[in-house]
């Protein structure tokens, strides 16, 4: 039982490049989330998905897109990376929603 | 503007003593509050939670207190152990699908 897995663990991009962060959970959770963590800012919600086939914006959605591919997988895409998107990205899942999330290990992204 | 605030970036406590971590919030619609613990290079781990209909919830060495009138919650760890050294985040939930996190407090428990 792996919980929440994220790939890659580290990534360096140049400004303007695109990439997709992958997330998968094996706990049969309905809700999945993407956060970014920046120094002194805590975790900020980028997008969430309450169930398969639905996605909604969080606090800081600009510059990102998401896809809830199926119940297990929730990906985050940066179409044109910017240095302001340098951060640590965490994926999480929960069920029922609001009862405490399970987090993945994070992806450390640097945009040059 | 942050809706959940942790005003102490760090806290240092002697092993065996009580650690008290504080959190304030501004949104009176929050109805569920959580504490997470985070070690370096790992994702946060859910620790304990409390519903807005309660004012206290206890789980072993960890107790969370909620003061709705003051919009304040706190996490008490008694007794503190070196393994408790980590960053602690409080979080609040409004409609079951959105979580708002504080900026974290780094706890150092000295042996």
Entry summary:
Chain A has strands spanning 4-7, 10-13, 19-25, 31-38, 42-49, 56-57, 64-68, 74-78, 87-94, 102-103, 107-111.
Overall description:
The complex is a heterodimer of chains A (112) and B (111). Chain A is mainly beta. The mean pLDDT of chain A is 93. Helix content of chain A is 0%, strand content 52%. In chain A, strands 2, 4, 5, 6, 9, 10 and 11 form a seven-stranded mixed beta sheet that branches. In chain A, strand 4 (31-38) and strand 5 (42-49) form a beta hairpin. By secondary structure, chain B is an all-beta fold. Helix content of chain B is 0%, strand content 55%. Chain B contains no helices and eleven strands. In chain B, strands 2, 4, 5, 9, 10 and 11 form a six-stranded mixed beta sheet that branches. A five-stranded antiparallel beta sheet of chain B has the order 1-3-8-7-6, with no helix packed on it. Chain B is globular, with a radius of gyration of 13 Å. Chain B starts with a strand and ends with a strand. The relative contact order of chain B is 0.34. The model of chain B has no long low-confidence stretch (mean pLDDT 94). The chains are: A mainly beta (112), B mainly beta (111). Chains A and B meet through strand 4, strand 5 and strand 10 of A and strand 4, strand 5, strand 9 and strand 10 of B.
Helix content of chain B: under 10%
Q: Detail the poorly predicted runs of chain B.
A: none
Structural class of chain A: mainly beta
- What is the helix tally of chain B? 0
Specify the biggest β-sheet of chain A.
7 strands, mixed
Quaternary arrangement of the chains shown? Answer: heterodimer
Task: Give the overall form of chain B.
Answer: globular
Q: Radius of gyration of chain B, rounded? A: 13 Å
End-to-end Cα distance of chain B: 37 Å
User: CA-to-CA gap between the ends of chain A?
Assistant: 36 Å
Rg on CA atoms of chain A, Å: 13 Å
Q: Helix fraction of chain A? A: under 10%
In the predicted model, the low-confidence regions of chain A spanning at least 5 consecutive residues are none
Q: What is the residue-mean pLDDT of chain A, rounded to a whole number?
A: 93
- Total DSSP helices of chain A: 0
Number of strands of chain B: 11
**Beta-strand residue percentage of chain A:** over 45%
Largest sheet of chain B: 6 strands, mixed
- Spell the H/E element sequence of chain A: EEEEEEEEEEE
Mean pLDDT of chain B: 94
By secondary-structure content and strand pairing, the structural class of chain B works out as mainly beta
């Amino acid at each position: 039982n792996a919980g929440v897995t994220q790939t890659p663990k580290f990534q360096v991009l140049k400004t303007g490049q695109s990439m997709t962060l992958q997330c998968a959970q094996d706990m049969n959770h309905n809700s999945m989330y993407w956060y970014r963590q920046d120094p002194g800012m805590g975790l900020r919600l980028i997008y969430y998905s309450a169930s398969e086939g639905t996605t909604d914006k969080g606090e800081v959605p600009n510059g990102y897109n998401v896809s809830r591919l199926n119940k297990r997988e929730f990906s985050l895409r940066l179409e044109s990376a910017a240095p302001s998107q340098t951060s640590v990205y965490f994926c999480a899942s929960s069920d029922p929603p609001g009862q405490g999330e399970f987090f993945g290990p994070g992806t450390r992204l640097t945009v040059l | 503007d942050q809706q959940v605030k942790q005003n102490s970036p760090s806290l240092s406590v002697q092993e065996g003593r009580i650690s008290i971590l504080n959190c304030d919030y501004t949104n009176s619609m929050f109805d569920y509050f959580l504490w997470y613990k985070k070690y370096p290079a790992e994702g946060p781990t859910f620790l304990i939670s409390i519903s807005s209909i309660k004012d206290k919830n206890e789980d072993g060495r960890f107790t969370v207190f909620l003061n709705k009138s003051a919009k304040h919650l706190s996490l008490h760890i008694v007794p503190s152990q070196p393994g408790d050294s980590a960053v602690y985040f409080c979080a609040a939930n409004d409609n079951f699908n959105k979580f708002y996190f504080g900026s974290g407090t780094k706890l150092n428990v000295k042996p």
